[in-house]
Amino acid sequence: MTGAAGERAVPPSARVGQPADIPAVLRALGVDVRRPVLVSVGGAGGMTPADLAVMAEALAPVIPALDEWGAAIVDGGTDSGVMKVMGRLRAAAGARFPLVGVAAEGTVILPGTSARPDAAALEPRHTQVILVPGQAWGDESPWLSRVAAAIADGQPSLTLVVNGGQITYDDIDHSLLAGRPVIILAGTGRTADTIAAAAHGDTGDPKAAQAAASPGTRIVSLDDPQALYSAIESILAPHR
Length: 240
What we know:
The chain is built from nine helices and eight strands. By secondary structure, the chain is α/β, with parallel strands linked by helices. It starts with 12 loop residues before the first strand and ends with a helix. The model is unreliable at about 1-5 (pLDDT under 50).
């Protein structure tokens, strides 16, 4: 297990080698389980500052509600895109829920180790990071779903898609295969908008068409923050 070290603070982290390790690692990191889980996937480096600002505004009301519901967020853990926004929103709200990053070990910068040129820094406001096997972007995708399932431990979970690239389709597939509902936030660009277009008949992208056609997928517009809140509440709020 590693902690903060060097010039840049990093969240407490631990490594897993196989899926069976996840429950023990969660215990070691102090992550309480049997709680609702929001899996956040989508854009990282491909999002502009304007994109991030709009996303932050839409999600700001959701963060204190997650705290109230005793939920957790699971995402990719790096200091970019939707993950950076989640870290900032949680800190700004003074929230206490776990914000758990799941990152392929070879893709992130770790204290005391040499990193590849395209490695990403960890987002420092995350409460824990789970390092999983892999050297390439996307290797973390099945592990995101596994970690979310282990934290939920029978409680509701959902995946929220904001913007995104090609790896986002893998994240969506793993969630749907696990029976986890997926909310697509239309109007945030790239993958999210391609799936939203497919839901309205534009089937030029087979992956988008497949995601849009799933009964587990729901499209919500960025222009309707109340609908977004209600969609998340309908799945994660305990009283539901």
